[in-house]
Design goal:
The complex is a heterodimer.
Chain A: E1 5-7, E2 10-13, E3 19-24, E4 31-37, E5 44-50, E6 53-56, E7 65-68, E8 75-79, E9 88-95, E10 103-104, E11 108-112
Parallel strand pairs in A: 2-11
Antiparallel strand pairs in A: 1-3, 3-8, 4-5, 4-9, 5-6, 7-8, 9-10, 9-11
Chain B: E1 3-5, E2 10-14, E3 19-21, E4 24-26, E5 32-39, E6 46-52, E7 60-61, E8 64-69, E9 74-79, E10 88-96, E11 104-105, E12 109-114
Parallel strand pairs in B: 2-12
Antiparallel strand pairs in B: 1-4, 3-9, 5-6, 5-10, 7-8, 8-9, 10-11, 10-12
Classes of the chains: A mainly beta, B mainly beta.
């Protein structure tokens, strides 16, 4: 069964450093999402792509976060510089289209020291 | 803006018994989707069940069923014959309006199934 792949699974960094997360969606899924999940809370959408275009990045802190999906397949989320408050689980999800069920990857747990 | 509220931070149930998790939401939209997702400890989030708001019939998936009350904006999840593998955090989520795909999640309910 096809799954969403994410790497790394765990990342520890010091504040002010740069970090990057990678996501490979299920083959054929045109819509890709990045969520941030603080421990004990529900995920919050950071950015939504349709193919290579950003559909919604209204909750993305653009002064330090960036996301790209250059060829409309895999995607990278970057934080520079990382802050203590960025410690969270970063989840990637994909779906065939925006009204279809989203399938989640295992996530990247980020710890900023 | 849509909001999703799960008023039960934690629930517990004995194996083989039935448990109901509550969820309410607030929206002015008429067309939308509702979901229950399950997140086991240290494992990825998986879909449990999906409901389209235009369908009056409640969705079911094996031991999982929902009670969808559109007028009351309520969407509860019933788990029958609970199993140890059902132990997880359960999230209710809303998707609809002008920005399909932007899931709005509740705070979650931790469900523990005891042997």
């Amino acid at each position: 069964e096809a799954e969403v792949a994410q790497s790394p699974r765990y990342k520890i960094t010091e504040k002010s450093q740069a970090v990057a997360f990678w996501c490979d969606p299920i083959s054929g899924h045109a819509t890709l999402y990045w969520y941030r999940q603080i421990l004990g809370q529900g995920p919050e959408l950071l950015v939504q792509f349709q193919d290579e275009s950003v559909v919604d990045d209204s909750q993305l802190p653009k002064d330090r976060f960036s996301a790209e999906r250059l060829k409309g397949v895999d995607s990278t989320l970057k934080i520079q510089p990382a802050e203590l408050g960025d410690s969270a689980m970063y989840l990637c999800a994909s779906s065939p289209g925006p009204t279809d069920t989203q399938y989640f990857g295992p996530g990247t747990r980020l710890t900023v020291l | 803006a849509q909001t999703v509220t799960q008023s039960q931070p934690e629930m517990s149930v004995q194996e083989a018994e039935t448990v109901t998790l509550s969820c309410t939401y607030d929206t002015s939209e008429s067309n939308y989707y509702l979901f229950w997702y399950k997140q086991p400890p240290s494992r990825q989030m998986i879909l449990v069940i999906r409901q389209e708001a235009y369908k009056q019939q409640n969705a079911t998936e094996n031991r999982f069923s929902v009670n969808f009350q559109k007028a009351a904006k309520s969407f509860s999840l019933k788990i029958s014959d609970s199993q140890l593998g059902d132990t997880a955090m359960y999230f209710c989520a809303f998707d609809g309006g002008t920005s399909y795909g932007k899931l709005t999640f509740g705070q979650g309910t931790i469900l523990t199934v005891h042997p």
